[in-house]
């Protein structure tokens, strides 16, 4: 598919991000299958990532949409990091001129830790692993919300 062709709804490649102030997990998924794959994590300083690492992923995967996990309190209200995640989403849009959506990410870290522990025990629970698995879960949850 050339860059100018738009993917049809249901056939988009979507890149997901688990925003954090020290690490940002990245995953890529296919809307048609509803599945996502980890691309690892990028280190960040006060929520500012190495943009060249993110750009490398965007150029490689040519996503049609970017989804950023929105960290909310359990009651659905904003917390301080919510605003930082929204700022990150805006920067993604400005840097890559791609549509960006946010998606509720409550409990993804706990889910990610449980999945990783099942796969490899405690040694599998490194910060980068948890963040990248959280990005996978954010994308899978986003896909599920499209079918509801």
TrEMBL record:
It comes from the Bacteria. The keyword Nuclease applies. One of its GO terms (cellular component) is cytosol. It is found in: Cytoplasm. Its main location: cytoplasm. Residues 12-112 form the YqgF/RNase H-like domain. Pfam families: RuvX. The keyword Transmembrane does not apply. Its EC number is 3.1.-.-. Gene3D superfamilies: YqgF/RNase H-like domain. Signal peptide: none annotated. Transmembrane segments: none annotated. It is an enzyme of class 3 (hydrolase). Belongs to the YqgF HJR family. PANTHER family: POLYNUCLEOTIDYL TRANSFERASE, RIBONUCLEASE H-LIKE SUPERFAMILY PROTEIN. Could be a nuclease involved in processing of the 5'-end of pre-16S rRNA. This is Putative pre-16S rRNA nuclease.
């Amino acid at each position: 598919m050339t860059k100018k062709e738009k993917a049809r709804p249901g056939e988009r490649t979507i890149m997901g991000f688990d925003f954090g102030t020290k690490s940002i997990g990245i995953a890529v998924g296919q809307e048609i299958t509803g599945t996502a794959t980890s691309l690892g994590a990028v280190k960040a300083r006060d929520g500012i990532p190495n943009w060249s690492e993110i750009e490398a992923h965007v150029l490689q995967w040519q996503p049609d949409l970017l989804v950023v996990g929105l960290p909310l309190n359990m009651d659905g209200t904003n917390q301080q990091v919510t605003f930082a995640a929204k700022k990150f989403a805006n920067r993604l849009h400005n840097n890559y001129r791609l549509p960006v959506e946010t998606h509720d990410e409550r409990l993804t870290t706990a889910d990610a830790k449980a999945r990783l522990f099942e796969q490899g025990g405690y040694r599998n629970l490194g910060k980068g692993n948890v963040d990248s698995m959280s990005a996978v879960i954010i994308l899978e949850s986003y896909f599920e919300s499209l079918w509801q």
